[in-house]
Design brief:
CATH class: Mainly Alpha
Number of domains: 1
Largest sheet: 2 strands, antiparallel
Distance between the termini: 7 Å
């Protein structure tokens, strides 16, 4: 598993997008992209999912307490 920030940054770079270009395409403020990639807290799940939907992913709460906070399962690299 990798952090949400690292996952998003990797996908954005694979798409050849700067943070600004990605924010514009995703329809969110540049600060949203920066906060996600830097692992900042206090993010709105709706905005995170809007950004992740650009790559066909979403983030949802799970009941498993063994998974670290802010981690996503990247099945492509597992």
């Amino acid at each position: 598993m990798k952090s949400l920030g690292n996952f998003l940054k990797e996908k954005r770079k694979q798409a050849g997008l700067t943070q600004l270009a990605f924010a514009e395409r995703a329809g969110v403020a540049l600060t949203v992209i920066r906060k996600i990639e830097q692992g900042k807290g206090n993010l709105q799940l709706e905005k995170v999912n809007h950004v992740l939907s650009m790559f066909g992913h979403t983030l949802a709460p799970i009941a498993n307490k063994d998974i670290e906070k802010n981690q996503i399962n990247d099945d492509e690299n597992s």
